[in-house]
Design goal:
By secondary structure, the chain is α/β, with parallel strands linked by helices. It has two domains: about 300 residues, NAD(P)-binding Rossmann-like Domain (Rossmann fold); about 150 residues, Alpha-D-Glucose-1,6-Bisphosphate, Chain A, domain 4 (2-Layer Sandwich), CATH 3.30.530. Helices cover about 35% and strands about 20% of the residues. It contains 13 helices and 19 strands. The chain has a seven-stranded parallel sheet with strand order 3-2-1-4-5-6-11, with helices on both faces. Strands 14-19-18-17-16-15 form a six-stranded antiparallel sheet, with helices on one face. Helix 2 packs parallel to helix 3 and helix 6 packs across helix 10. The mean pLDDT is about 85.
């Protein structure tokens, strides 16, 4: 059947695509930038539609014979005051595109909303449900809580806390209860409800088999990792202090941390349902889900990660409209080294740069720059990279964003997402047996120029050391 997938570049969307293709479906993926979607474009049953649902409907047409449309768009990483408005606008515009088609079912992945007092995030999800239901197309809503899988936001945040903090002085919301669900089960539910008549115009809570506190999740994760951790909860942490606690320790952005803390104050307990039994789904316990996620990471088989989302860093998606690095009005630091006879070796090092590999020279200086960025409200170095051995356009790489990752033509272009008084690019490429490394900075006003000259001595050591290490025999 023909299936429309929104949020195709997102964490859930990228996990769903292979399963839909394996089942023989023709998948139309809605993306804002086709350049970020390059890893999937070689499949003959996968089509892309460039569309931004935050903007009013354009002349873009969806296939008239669509049967199922997955709505997987969420805006939790937006600012505190505007994500609800963004989610409402996106849902309304989505319906305008979909209504002229013959679509038989919308499937929406929402959040569990059974408490009388809902966080702003969950209230927004419920509002989107109401908008989609009012569109006249049969809608199935699956409401999930914490999703556990390699690369998921909840998994990576718990992983950061457990692996970095032998002793945790934590907020009271660690006592809040939830029912985490494995990403494998989420995908099974999404696939299982497609065009099932008994699921049309209904909503279902989907959850794992256990009810746990956030503290118990941390303790079970530590048990899997064979780590001893002491957790002390204190009543004095305000929501803002709790947000800073998450922000500085984990790889989350401050905006996401604020929204997460707002949600974590409310129990997320699922209503009882026999949907898993009817679909033949075996629910995976939390500890087993953690083990499966860690296995994927160890095997280097992480399909998607929430940190690669543009919303996670507040980066403008239109960045991909201009992949040529500017030169006018810019400061440029260009260095080159001869790599004749060892081109493959040098490029293999470039391809693994960042994350656990580091930057080949002065890693402590990079760490200090990441810490300063965190103190200024930036993304810092905590994000690392999703895949240790491969890289794609759109991936997050420490405090950079990958714009070009052309392994065949040996070009890697990174855009800085750190807090800067200007814009910065870092490019690596091979030209005539020369490894060329170029740092470009386009300053913003006097502060930008002062910044460049203040870090110029450090650049001399860092950039020289880095290219020497990359090019060494």
């Amino acid at each position: 059947m023909k299936i429309l997938l929104t949020g195709a570049n997102g964490y859930i969307g990228q996990r769903l695509i292979p399963s839909l293709l394996d089942q023989g479906h023709e998948v139309y993926c809605c993306v804002r930038d086709r350049a970020r979607f390059s890893r999937h474009l070689n499949h003959d049953r996968l089509k892309t539609i460039e569309v931004d649902f935050l903007k009013p409907k354009t002349e873009i047409q969806f296939p008239s014979d669509l049967e199922v449309a997955f709505y997987l768009i969420h805006s939790m990483n937006q600012g505190i005051g505007n994500f609800a408005e963004a989610e409402q606008s996106s849902a309304e515009n989505f319906l305008q595109y979909l209504q002229p088609t013959g679509c038989k079912q919308i499937i929406y992945l929402s959040g569990i909303v059974n408490e009388d007092r809902l966080s702003k995030h969950l209230q927004s999800r419920l509002n989107v449900e109401h908008i989609l239901r009012a569109g006249g197309i049969p809608t199935t809503v699956l409401r999930a809580g914490i999703v556990v899988g390699s690369g998921s936001a909840s998994f990576e945040i718990v992983r950061d806390l457990v692996e970095k903090l032998p002793v945790m002085v934590a907020p009271q919301w660690l006592k809040t209860r939830c029912q985490p669900i494995a990403i494998r089960n989420v995908i099974e539910f999404l696939l299982g409800v497609m065009l099932r008549s008994e699921t049309l115009n209904r909503d279902f809570d989907i959850a794992g088999p256990e009810t746990l506190t956030y503290r118990q999740m941390l303790e079970q994760f530590a048990r899997v990792r064979k780590l001893k951790r002491l957790i002390i909860t204190v009543p004095v942490m305000t929501p803002r202090l709790s947000s800073y606690w998450l922000y500085f320790i984990t790889s989350t952005s401050f905006r996401l941390a604020m929204n997460l803390v707002d949600s974590m104050k409310v129990d997320i307990i699922a209503r009882k349902s026999d949907l898993a039994e009817r679909l033949g789904i075996t629910l995976i316990p939390y500890q087993k889900a953690v083990e499966l996620a860690l296995e994927r990471i160890e095997q280097g088989n992480v399909i998607s990660g929430w940190k690669d989302s543009f919303a996670s860093s507040g980066t403008n998606p239109s960045l991909f409209n201009a992949l040529e690095v500017p030169t006018h009005g810019c400061f440029i630091d260009r260095r080159s080294r001869d790599i004749a006879g060892r081109t493959d070796l040098a490029w293999a090092r470039v391809w693994k740069i960042g994350g656990d590999t580091g930057w080949y020279y002065g890693n402590w200086l990079w760490s200090m720059r990441g810490l300063l960025d965190k103190l200024c409200g930036g993304v810092g170095l905590n994000r690392g990279r999703t895949d240790a051995s491969d890289i794609h356009p759109g991936d997050a790489l420490d405090f950079w964003r990958v714009l070009v990752a052309d392994k065949q033509n040996r070009r890697l272009l990174l855009y800085a997402e750190m807090r800067l008084p200007g814009e910065a690019w870092l490019e690596f490429k091979v030209v005539d047996a020369q490894l060329v490394q170029t740092a470009t900075f386009r300053p913003r006003g006097v502060s930008g120029r002062l910044y460049w000259y203040s870090v110029l001595p450090l650049h001399h050591f860092i950039f020289n050391g880095m290219i020497d290490a990359l090019a060494q025999p």
